[in-house]
Design a protein that fits this description.
It contains 18 helices and 25 strands. It has 632 residues and is of the alpha+beta class. It folds into three domains: 1-143 and 178-200 and 219-225, Immunoglobulin-like; 337-479, Neutral Protease, domain 2 (Orthogonal Bundle), CATH 1.10.390.10; 497-630, Peptidase M1, leukotriene A4 hydrolase/aminopeptidase C-terminal domain (Serine Threonine Protein Phosphatase 5, Tetratricopeptide repeat, Alpha Horseshoe). InterPro entries: Aminopeptidase_N-like_N (IPR045357), Aminopeptidase_N-like_N_sf (IPR042097), ARM-type_fold (IPR016024), LTA4H_cat (IPR049980), M1_LTA-4_hydro/amino_C_sf (IPR038502), M1_LTA4H (IPR034015), Peptidase_M1 (IPR001930), Peptidase_M1_C (IPR015211). Residues 494-631 form the Peptidase M1 leukotriene A4 hydrolase/aminopeptidase C-terminal domain. It holds the Pfam family Peptidase_M1_N.
């Protein structure tokens, strides 16, 4: 994202401690799950939250809300069970553009006072509620703004079915505070129950135990008994149906989408089995998917029990399902063990990319996983080049103080983090590394952890004073230095070597239609398109398009990569498809590079602004905040 110049001086920041009491909770199979958060764990201050969890911290949320599509608001109460750890007279929440109506203490609903702090552009306001030393429960009555950043209200026309409106939330990174008054830090975990009232013709689902069909009242109740951080709070409301995939897996989607989704994600259960084989038991009971309308800004969001996923992966050939492996992997890295602050984001995503590739290797073989590694490396090189090889934002451990944490959601966390973990695996061997990662997930289960704590664990449990091993692992070079460490070997792919042969033949003058491309996966096509020269003649573009029908591809990854070439080479044949794509797809991964390419020339910028004016209402705030800055 484009950096913002913001000053946080004078703001009250989160406390330095995350405290939690020992909790035991039954799982679906009767096994007892015990939280390891029994001791005072010192974590770094979260500079993106006003909460002061070292003084008073939330432990459980009871949410009772009404979803109003006419007003585009959510209203109701958020009741928290709290631990007043120091006997303080206040508890601090995060709030952004919320209308706070009242605050109450205890089961008797005793009214109390509250105070909203000064507004910061992306952090919002502190919400300080007056409590007593013995207060155990705080209830906040509130209403959201119609333009709450986490809430995407879609008209019927913006859905697949075209008959009913749709709502979904996106709370990561610090947007939960725009739809719930909450201690909005990944270092604070809580369980929750919810009661949600929606129009009777619609179904509500959450990051919790979910219904599988509509009822006649429009009132739905939910339970999440495993403690989660605020960014994993999720709600969606729409004309949804459910289809079972396996014993623990299923899919929610609009009726018009459900069959295509059920086909595309038919191997979800195999992925779950493969994941458990590598890193142990899945601890969230069910793993379901919700296929959202195209405006969803990400590929997927790992909300516990219910991954939100973009329809852009519905390629009709199961070629893009590594995204599902990625979101499933988050059930261990991110959801089970969570980054303590957004400066530690690589702990969520680096582990998840590594685990995703292991799942895909288990299912489809090493050659398949090798292709994913090469594509990931290409993305990483592009990000490093874009940011600058010496930029501190290419460190794994970030410093995002004073900035929107979304600026840290880059390929550095994902791909550099993955290659760091692959480097450790290479240094110690896969069996030993797998044992280490299993120990890591078990030791820190249902907790948040920082980069420092992970590295301490790495040194004590794996390196164990071995200086030669420490040098191979190279913590300083990977975690605290820019770019990629000296001596890093780029990944290679035997399947991509054959793609490169075909490309070189085309480059030497062989017609595209005569190239050997039979049985190429979308990854091979993507690699081919990425190899194409920056500048091509219209004849070359037309030759490729006629042979491979790129402009009309049903694969969003291939299509987006092709559009970058069509823009740079003024290939007007693709203009209509480009506008259709930008108007209907809200995934930021595709939008930003395409709009950047258009923005590079005066004529292109004119085209970009015209398309954006029509398309912007279809995009989530996560996308528009980036694109508004880009196209201003």
């Amino acid at each position: 994202m484009t950096p913002y110049k913001r000053c946080l001086l004078g703001l009250s920041m989160a406390g330095a401690l995350q405290l939690a009491s020992c909790t035991s909770q039954p799982t679906s199979d009767g096994e007892t799950m015990t939280s390891e958060q029994t001791a005072t764990e010192k974590l770094p201050a979260d500079v993106h939250s006003y909460a002061q969890p070292a003084e008073a911290v939330t432990k459980h949320l009871d949410l009772d809300i009404d979803v109003n599509f006419d007003q585009k608001t959510i209203s109701g109460t958020a009741s928290y069970l709290i631990d007043n750890l120091t006997g303080t007279d206040k508890i601090v929440f995060d709030s952004r553009n919320l209308q706070i109506e009242n605050a109450y203490l205890g089961d008797n609903i005793e009214e109390t006072t509250f105070e909203l702090g000064e507004t910061n552009q992306f952090m919002g306001q502190s919400l300080t509620v007056k409590i007593k030393p013995d207060t155990k429960k705080v209830t906040i009555k509130y209403k959201t703004s119609p333009d709450a950043a986490a809430l995407q209200w879609l008209s019927p026309q913006q859905t697949a079915g075209k008959k009913h409106p749709f709502l979904f939330t996106q709370s990561q990174a610090i947007l939960a505070r725009t739809w719930i008054p909450i201690q909005d830090s990944p270092g604070i975990r809580f369980t929750y129950n919810a009661k949600v009232k929606v129009p009777k013709e619609l179904l509500a689902v959450m990051s919790a135990e979910n219904p599988v069909q509509k009822n006649s009242t429009g009132v739905y109740t939910f339970e999440m008994k495993q403690p989660i951080p605020s960014y994993l709070m999720a709600l969606s409301v729409g004309d949804l149906v459910f289809e079972k995939v396996g014993p623990q897996t299923g899919i929610y989607a609009e009726p018009a989408t459900i069959k295509a989704a059920a086909y595309e994600f038919a191997e979800m259960d195999k992925m779950l089995v493969a994941a458990e084989k590598i890193y142990g038991k899945y601890r969230w009971d069910r793993y379901d998917l919700l296929v959202l309308p195209p405006s969803f800004p990400f590929g997927g969001m790992e909300n516990p029990r219910l991954t939100f996923v973009t329809p852009t992966v519905l390629a009709k050939d199961r070629s893009l399902t590594s995204l599902i492996a990625h979101e499933l992997a988050h059930s261990w890295s991110g959801n089970l063990v969570t980054n303590a602050t957004w400066d530690d984001f690589w702990l969520n995503e680096g582990f998840t990319v590594y685990f995703e590739r292991r799942i895909m290797e288990e299912l489809y073989g090493k050659e398949y996983a090798d292709m994913l590694n090469v594509l990931g490396y290409q993305d990483l090189k592009h990000t490093i080049a874009d940011k600058g090889a010496d930029n501190a934002d290419t460190h794994l451990k970030l410093d995002l103080e004073g900035r929107d944490p979304d600026e840290g959601l880059t390929d550095i966390a994902y791909e550099k983090g993955n290659f760091f973990l692959q480097n450790i695996e290479k240094a110690v061997g896969r069996a030993r590394f797998d044992q280490f990662v299993n120990d890591y997930f078990n030791t820190f289960a249902f907790q948040s952890t920082s980069t420092d704590k992970f590295l301490d664990f790495l040194r004590s449990e794996l390196i164990k004073g071995d200086e030669e091993l420490a040098e191979k692992i190279n913590i300083e070079g990977w975690v605290y230095s820019p770019g990629l460490p000296e001596g890093f070997t780029a990944p290679a792919s035997s399947r991509f070597a054959k793609v490169e042969e075909a490309y070189n033949a085309w480059k030497s003058g062989k017609p595209a239609a005569q190239l050997t491309t039979k049985d190429w996966s979308s990854h091979e096509w993507l690699h081919f398109i990425r190899m194409l020269p920056e500048t091509m003649s219209l004849q070359q573009m037309a030759d490729l398009d006629k042979a491979f029908n790129f402009t009309n591809s049903g694969n969003s990854e291939v299509l987006a990569a092709w559009f970058l070439h069509s823009i740079k080479n003024n290939y007007a044949t693709a203009d209509k498809a480009l506008e259709t794509f930008l108007t209907n797809v809200g995934r930021r991964k595709f939008l930003v590079p395409i709009y950047k390419a258009l923005n590079a020339t005066p004529e292109g910028k004119k085209k970009a602004l015209a398309i954006y004016a029509k398309a912007r209402p279809n995009y989530h705030a996560v996308s528009t905040v980036t694109l508004d800055e880009l196209l201003k």
